[in-house]
Model the fold of this input.
Amino acid sequence: MKLEYLGDISDGGRFKDVETDELIRLYKFNKSQAIQFRDAIKLHVVEQHQELNLTTLDFIEPVNCSLTLRLGSELGIHRENKIDFICELKVEGFEKMIYLLEPFCEKEESGYQWLYDVITPIELLFSSNGDW
Done:
């Protein structure tokens, strides 16, 4: 599974129908990795109320950023610095994320899913092949 930040998905405004200009995507994964990702969120964030830096998970390969999942207010993703990002949601937000991951954990699912619906400049994409 790869973790990547994309900073200008509208290509400088060339693509007018994109709703956001920035996103972090998790992509190129299989069913086993989707299960491990779901279970890590459930254990560390929802049950133990711990931060989870995704780059510490051995099945995630960071391309150009890090992403830490943290309990807090419904901020969604925000930037710590140029390459480090925080995804801050309430427990219910992470429980919904777990629910949205389920189809990828039940079978080798192709396709994609946006993992939260908080209004924020940076979206979070879970995509088997990287597109949306």
User: Anything to note?
Assistant: The chain has one domain: 2-127. The radius of gyration is 14 Å. The mean pLDDT is 91. The CA atoms of residues 69 and 83 lie 15 Å apart.
